[in-house]
Amino acid sequence: MECVRSGVLDLRCSAHFSGKKGGSTTSCGRSSSTYLVFSTKYHHNSQLAARRSSCLVHRSSVPKQQQNFSVRSSSADVCTTFDENVKGVSSHAAEEKIGVLLLNLGGPERLDDVQPFLFNLFADPDIIRLPRLFRFLQRPLAKLISTFRAPKSKEGYASIGGGSPLRKITDEQANALKLALKKKNLHADIYVGMRYWYPFTEEAIDQIKKDMIMKLVVLPLYPQYSISTSGSSIRVLQNIVREDSYFAGLPISIIESWYQRDGYVKSMADLIEKELSVFYNPEEVMIFFSAHGVPLTYVKDAGDPYRDQMEDCIALIMGELRSRGILNRHTLAYQSRVGPVQWLKPYTDEVLVELGQKGVKSLLVVPVSFVSEHIETLEEIDMEYKELALESGIENWGRVPALGCTSSFISDLADAVIEALPSASVMVTRKANDDDSDMDLIHYLSKMFFGSVLAFVLLLSPRLISAFRNTLL
Ligand SMILES: C=CC1=C(C)c2cc3[nH]c(cc4nc(cc5[nH]c(cc1n2)c(C)c5CCC(=O)O)C(CCC(=O)O)=C4C)c(C)c3C=C
Ligand SMILES: [Fe+2]
């Protein structure tokens, strides 16, 4: 049983939308009578399916036309130049009112936004995963953690100009995508929905409804799927679909991950090749992929495919570089861990020190989990990690920019949208009666036990609170 056909999420399948350990009671099928059940265990079939094929379904049957375009968007920073094989779309698609919803994380625009932004982030049950019984602690805990975390985060945002660039960049990407689609003969309205700050996904959803969009493609701006990112945003969407009769009847196609697309892989390889050429001895440079981490339990217990997809992604990019005769060594590590739990290893900061000790002299860092510049590229990599690396003996440091509005990348996203359209279908959802129903007693009790310990640690013990605070700061 495969729920994802070549990378496009089949909305009638249950298992992608996390919630439940095991995923065995979920339903999956092609018929509209099957239901979407929320479960935490990620369905690995989807990942295998995505790996097997280069990506999305339903390639347009319209012959490719060789065309040259040069367009400038209304925003001065967005410049999109197309020189490629342009794929056309069938005329009936052009007559429908098509919407594309770009999902992203969002970021505080001013320092005063930092604490409420962090509150929204930590109040997300896909970010702090409490046992069901302790969900009532989610918001008090979010308040506590966001308050402790805010001073450190504020420092970071202050050092990159006082706020996150995410909204501006995402808007630019939306403009560029609209133009790219237009050039491929698809007229679509593009909406931006952020998970933790303005414009919130709910606002985008309202606008989509007002505009009476007839078909919607949902494109999370994360190349790899994680429960904590695309998964969380998709969950918001599902909740809306369940409550709202307009969305319940709207054909939707979700592109859940797209790291395996040729256009993305080649665009990343282009950026790496270009930055390597800046080094005095490019062949001696170690390519250092730094991905945003997630807590280890996401992968080990909840079935998050994030690590597998990340490794797959790196292999594809390195394969592309090798095919161009670029044979540099490379490594992958995970950055930006928060709090006292174990995250995916190895950790970026530790690997930087080790490489310095081993005598590596030249490093090219490649941020790989996100397609915009943000606090973790501009502050964590460019400032903190650079300083650490130089102190550890690295002499030559370079960093690949995020893809942003790179024309080949935006053009590929446009192709992804066009390819996803034919599989848009009505989301049929039902609320799982008890999404912990297949959890065995021991697991349930252990969750309760650890949940209680966590609650006591975080809410009752001042000494441990201060230890926790030190870990966050
Ligand atoms: C693929 C990308 C990301 C994953 C996976 C992810 C998981 C994740 N993040 C936190 C905690 C924080 N993330 C923060 C900022 C932030 N996170 C991502 C991306 C991923 N997060 C981005 C792009 C950003 C930056 C947004 C911006 O404003 O530029 C922050 C706030 C910043 C800070 O204080 O460091 C926190 C906190 C967790 C806990 C998590 C997985 C569970
Ligand atoms: Fe994050």
Please describe what this structure looks like.
The protein has 473 residues and is α/β, with parallel strands linked by helices. It is built from 16 helices and 13 strands. The strands form three sheets. Strands 1, 2, 5, 6, 7, 8 and 13 form a seven-stranded mixed beta sheet that branches. A four-stranded parallel beta sheet has the order 10-9-11-12, with helices on both faces. Helix 5 (166-183) crosses helix 14 and helix 12 (348-357) runs parallel beside helix 13 (375-391). The longest helix has 22 residues, at 138-159. Residues 1-88, 90-94 and 432-438 have low confidence and may be disordered. It binds ligand L6N33NVT and fe (ii) ion. The site of the ligand C=CC1=C(C)c2cc3[nH]c(cc4nc(cc5[nH]c(cc1n2)c(C)c5CCC(=O)O)C(CCC(=O)O)=C4C)c(C)c3C=C has 22 residues, from helix 3, helix 4, helix 7 and helix 13.
Which labels suit this protein?
four-stranded parallel sheet, seven-stranded mixed sheet, 16 helices, binds the ligand C=CC1=C(C)c2cc3[nH]c(cc4nc(cc5[nH]c(cc1n2)c(C)c5CCC(=O)O)C(CCC(=O)O)=C4C)c(C)c3C=C, binds fe (ii) ion, disordered N terminus, globular, 473 residues, alpha/beta, 13 strands
SSE inventory with pairings:
Blueprint: E1 4-5, E2 8-9, H1 44-52, E3 65-72, E4 79-86, H2 91-95, E5 98-104, H3 114-122, H4 138-159, H5 166-183, E6 188-194, H6 201-210, E7 215-220, H7 227-243, H8 245-248, E8 251-255, H9 262-276, E9 286-292, H10 296-300, H11 306-323, E10 330-335, H12 348-357, E11 362-367, H13 375-391, E12 396-399, H14 407-420, E13 425-426, H15 441-459, H16 462-472
Parallel strand pairs: 5-6, 5-7, 7-8, 9-10, 9-11, 11-12
Antiparallel strand pairs: 1-2, 2-8, 3-4, 8-13
Helix pairs in contact: 3-4, 5-14, 9-11, 9-14, 12-13
Residues 105, 107, 118, 121, 127, 149, 153, 164, 166, 222, 226, 228-229, 292, 294-295, 338, 369-370, 374-376 line the site of ligand L6N33NVT.
